[in-house]
Amino acid sequence: MARGQTAYVCQSCGAVHAKWAGQCNACDAWHTIVEEQAAPPSGGSARRTAKGRAVALETLASVSAAPPRRMTGVAEFDRVTGGGLVAGSALLLGGDPGVGKSTLILQALAAYARKAPSVVYVSGEEALDQVRLRATRMGLAQAPVQLGSATCVEDILATLAAGPVPDILAVDSIQTLWTSALDAAPGTIAQVRTATHDLVRYAKASGTAVIFVGHVTKDGQIAGPKAVEHLVDAVLYFEGERGHHFRILRAVKNRFGATDEIGVFEMTGSGLEEVRNPSALFLGDRSGLSPGTAVFAGIEGTRPLLSEIQALVAPSSYGSPRRAVVGWDAGRLAMILAVLDARAGLGISSRDIYLNVAGGLKIAEPAADLAAAAALISSHTGRALPQDCVVFGEIALSGDVRPAPQADARLKEAAKLGFSRALVPAGTKAEGLALERISDVGGLVRLLDAN
Asked: What are phi and psi of 106, to 5 degrees?
């Protein structure tokens, strides 16, 4: 019998090396390479004698009905998943330790179990008493959720086979799973990948919607190989900082829905509460006028979302000016500063620049360029923007301000929250607010200097 081969696999990125090394040359992580037993290759004779079966081919015109959804009852969670969980799908939820992943899953399962008591929660990290204590604190002790504590995939599958097929299965977490089919230690790349694959196969065969909970690395990526993310149908990230009381659920992959939706929750002593109006949450306290702030009217998926961008332009104490950015792309800030200097003659690149999105929200939309520029100009000149004004628009390298999509939705959300003015790109056609149309960054500087 052929001797099993070994491979040296990085536990951070999954890269395979020919020999052991102290540092992985793929991700530069130290002391993450572990020797693992590789699966023995199949024999050549077996491969030659194996015969496949023909599969039925269909045309693109044979469109089937949309898959049925299993709505949990937590509206923000269902929004991000695309309208609920799909039967037979696998979902991976990642987040920092202590951000509230287990709390969110327990609330979603309890809400679903009240209308369809066919939910199983398998905990591999916490004892069942710890899960019960959390449920009691959240007022969910009476929800008909079936609890189990196991880390071996064979034990989990045997438990599920002994009872009725559940509608939803939650496993917390994938880093604790292991299978007896491999000799590798629990938590290694091979164990996590194989165990996840076995449970995904169970989901496809039984119709159960499986939810995996996963940890993230210091870089913010889900711990384990990218192959785990390829195996599942949806990947969600639960974001939040300990200094803020709100949490954001964001989809980065979804085969059954959009990947630009977000759900907003507020962490309280009794669990997570849904935030119905996140714009009011991210605007913060705007009781008075202060230079260096601008309200950005953004779009997250199908939801208009208003947030406050804060900027501070200060004299530099060193030869190299400092840049500190929180919640926005630092490269985007560098581009805006260069455009303001080259196209508007503002001359602020030699100063220290601090930019922050209030509340810890992360903005990736190009339409935030004009709001960031307005906040920078306001801080530099010492002139505050009007309190009832919102800003949005994309800035090109030429200094031109380009239109942003879904302007009507942005302005309607602003009007609903009491705003009456808007700085928008030239060519924006919308009604409801008094619009100041900006064609280039030079016009923005002149307008703010005139206020």
From this structure: -65, -40
